């Protein structure tokens, strides 16, 4: 009877843990675990640690406190702790547990190496990754499907696509997960054509794609602008039924929009029964990126009117981007204000950067400067440079000089900042100031100064030379080499 009662209590605790959704509930269940004397029951405690270490709403530090009270944790618990720290803010601690696991005499298995190799990829540590690869070889686990897939992925993260490809080709009969990882590795390494070739090859081998395959492959189509291939992938999706999955439809919208097929993007968008905020963001961005600013803002307003989807920070970033390219200053101001006051979304540095660009393009450089001064975070060089470009465009040399001083503290060796300021002086006809900036550039070792400043100022080189000489400046020899290193967006 006692044995049966314990079994029932254990089953009850396990059932409650399966229904647990937050740490508050977990702690109550854990208290019951202690009360029942299950603290050393590795099966029950293992379930507690799984929630704390791995679940979205878990707490890895609480998992550590539970773990430390277990006298003889089994391999599952050790692996769970390693996995948990792989998902935490300090993934290096996973290796502390691996070391302790070895010291206790436990042998690492395929799960251990899969989790550790994933951490190596997260850390971007090539040396550590190779060391763990050697350890997996030593234990005879490098060919295990879990370990091999993680190795392929890890080397892809390291941008060593040749090594990833070699490891993949050594798999006797790769399954769908292996193909998906290999396609994704090509995409992450910028090998988009090879990713599409891999997708075609996978189909020839008779492997049926899933939603992950389609999302990754459509990403390659988007980056490559491969509209015809994307349409073919779309037809494949229609034959599988994965078109009802929101992530797949979002990827189709993104692909069509980036390939310039806005009608097909809109058709896919309108055909979706269920949408998410990401769906709306993707469609709005697609319209804005192709100059359809009014249509993008109309769609955004429609999203707000329906009140079924809450805009997020990305939504407002896309909308501000549209306002910037459409020269819609008042709308930009309004949306920037609404974002915080009505939707309680705190602007990030990117939102401020967009707003500075909107105001700067329209000539409100002083207002842009005040906005930067009011930012709750430190302004970065990108935003300062955006305002400096506006000063160049509108000839505000005084403010431009202040901004250059700010940039000098952040990135003292960025030549384009000097050129932007010299450009503003040249546009205002202040040639002595141009010469002063040019001399500062010369002291810092920048070359081809005459040609660069002339090109940025939009002045014929001979006219620039004449004006500089008239100002008493000495001209330096120049070549055409710097033309190609000029920032293209200024």
TrEMBL record:
Indicate whether Glycosyltransferase appears among the record's keywords: no
Per the record, the domain of life is Eukaryota
PPR repeats mapped onto the chain: 74-108, 175-209, 276-310, 414-448
In Gene Ontology terms, what is a biological process of this protein?
RNA modification
- For the keyword Repeat, the answer is yes
Q: Which UniProt keywords apply?
A: Repeat
What Pfam family does this protein match (any one)? PPR
One molecular function GO term is: RNA binding
Against PROSITE patterns, the record matches this protein to: PPR
Q: Give the matching NCBIfam families.
A: PPR
Designated name of the protein: Pentatricopeptide repeat-containing protein
User: What is the scientific name of the source organism?
Assistant: Dovyalis caffra
The root-end lineage is: Eukaryota, Viridiplantae, Streptophyta, Embryophyta, Tracheophyta
């Amino acid at each position: 009877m006692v044995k049966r009662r314990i079994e029932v209590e254990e089953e009850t605790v396990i059932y409650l843990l399966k229904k647990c959704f937050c740490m508050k509930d977990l702690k109550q269940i854990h208290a019951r675990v202690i009360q029942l004397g299950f603290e050393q029951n590795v099966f029950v405690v293992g379930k507690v640690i799984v929630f704390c270490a791995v679940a979205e709403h878990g707490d890895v530090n609480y998992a550590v406190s539970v773990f430390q009270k277990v006298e003889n944790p089994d391999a599952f618990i050790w692996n769970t702790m390693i996995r948990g720290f792989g998902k935490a803010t300090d993934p290096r601690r996973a290796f502390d547990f691996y070391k302790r696991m070895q010291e206790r005499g436990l042998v690492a298995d395929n799960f251990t190496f899969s989790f550790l190799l994933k951490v190596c990829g997260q850390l971007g540590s090539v040396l550590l990754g190779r060391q763990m690869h050697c350890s997996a070889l030593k234990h005879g686990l490098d060919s295990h499907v879990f370990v091999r897939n993680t190795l392929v992925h890890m080397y892809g993260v390291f941008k060593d696509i040749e090594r990833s490809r070699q490891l993949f080709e050594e798999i006797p009969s790769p399954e769908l997960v292996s193909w998906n990882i290999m396609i994704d590795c090509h995409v992450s390494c910028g090998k988009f054509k090879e990713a599409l070739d891999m997708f075609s090859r996978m189909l020839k081998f008779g492997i049926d794609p899933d939603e992950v395959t389609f999302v990754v492959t459509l990403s390659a189509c988007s980056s490559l602008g491969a509209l015809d291939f994307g349409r073919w992938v779309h037809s494949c999706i229609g034959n599988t039924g994965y078109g009802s999955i929101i992530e797949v439809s979002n990827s189709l919208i993104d692909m069509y929009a980036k390939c310039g097929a806005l009608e097909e993007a809109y058709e896919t968008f309108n055909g979706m029964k269920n949408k998410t905020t990401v769906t709306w963001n993707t469609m709005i961005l697609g319209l804005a990126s192709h100059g359809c600013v009014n249509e993008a803002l109309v769609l955004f307003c429609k999203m707000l009117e329906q009140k079924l989807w809450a805009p997020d920070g990305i939504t407002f970033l896309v909308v501000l981007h549209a306002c910037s390219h459409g020269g819609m200053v008042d709308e930009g101001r309004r949306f920037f204000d609404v974002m915080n006051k009505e939707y309680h979304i705190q602007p990030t540095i990117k939102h401020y950067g967009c707003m500075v660009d909107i105001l700067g393009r329209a000539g409100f450089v002083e207002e842009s400067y005040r906005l930067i001064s009011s930012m709750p975070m430190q302004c970065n060089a990108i935003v300062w440079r955006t305002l400096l470009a506006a000063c160049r465009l509108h000839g505000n040399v005084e403010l431009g000089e202040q901004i250059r001083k700010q940039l000098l503290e952040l990135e003292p060796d960025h030549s384009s900042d000097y050129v932007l300021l010299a450009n503003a002086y040249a546009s205002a006809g202040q040639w002595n100031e141009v010469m002063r900036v040019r001399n500062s550039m010369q002291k810092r070792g920048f070359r081809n100064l005459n040609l660069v400043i002339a090109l940025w100022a939009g002045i014929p080189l001979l006219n620039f030379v004449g004006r500089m000489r008239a100002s008493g400046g000495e001209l330096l020899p120049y070549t055409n080499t710097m033309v190609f290193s000029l920032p293209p967006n200024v």
